[in-house]
């Protein structure tokens, strides 16, 4: 059985970047400043601070990723408080919080929210007409899983 939920036209966007990808995310955000300004932005740690300064718009700042920020974003996704994740992660560097990163990406799939892990994907998402309108997302009903006998 499927459930449905509406992702509103004005989205709640979490923005995260590993150290080696922060510059790329900031450059992308500056190019997309107007589109971003129509949404509520959340950022982890330094990324949130840098985005707020670069875009000259408010960014709700969470903890640094390794200090729990990735888990905060994941929790917000599970609570349906985040509609889209822009996460420029570094595939070439081991991170002390790699399990948190994997869990965060897993939650994006579980809760069926769009996620961009690089500039190309972020460009595709932001150029989609769905970015500026309500979108009805399907949500898998996990009640069978939750009600299974252990």
TrEMBL record:
Keyword Ribosomal protein present in the record's keywords: the answer is no
Q: Could you tell me the keywords of this UniProt record?
A: Lyase
Residue ranges of domain MGS-like in the record: 5-150
Q: Which GO terms describe its cellular component?
A: cytosol
GO biological process, alphabetically ordered: methylglyoxal biosynthetic process
Reading the lineage from the top rank, the first entry is Bacteria
* EC assignment: 4.2.3.3
Q: Which family does it belong to?
A: Belongs to the methylglyoxal synthase family.
- HAMAP family reported in the protein's UniProt record: Methylglyoxal_synth (MF_00549)
State what protein this is by name.
Methylglyoxal synthase
What species is this protein from? Dyadobacter helix
Gene name as annotated: mgsA
């Amino acid at each position: 059985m499927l459930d449905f939920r509406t992702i509103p036209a004005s989205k709640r966007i979490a923005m995260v970047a590993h150290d080696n990808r922060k510059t790329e995310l900031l450059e992308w955000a500056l190019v997309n400043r107007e589109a971003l300004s129509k949404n509520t932005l959340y950022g982890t740690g330094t990324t949130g601070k840098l985005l707020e300064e670069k875009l000259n718009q408010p960014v709700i700042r969470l903890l640094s990723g390794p200090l729990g920020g990735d888990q905060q974003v994941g929790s917000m996704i599970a609570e349906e408080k985040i509609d889209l994740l822009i996460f420029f992660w570094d595939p070439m560097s081991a991170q002390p919080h790699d399990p948190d990163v994997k869990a965060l990406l897993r939650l994006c799939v579980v809760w069926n929210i769009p996620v961009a892990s690089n500039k190309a994907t972020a460009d595709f998402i932001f150029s989609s007409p769905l970015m500026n309108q309500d979108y009805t997302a399907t949500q898998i009903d996990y009640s069978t899983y939750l009600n299974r006998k252990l």
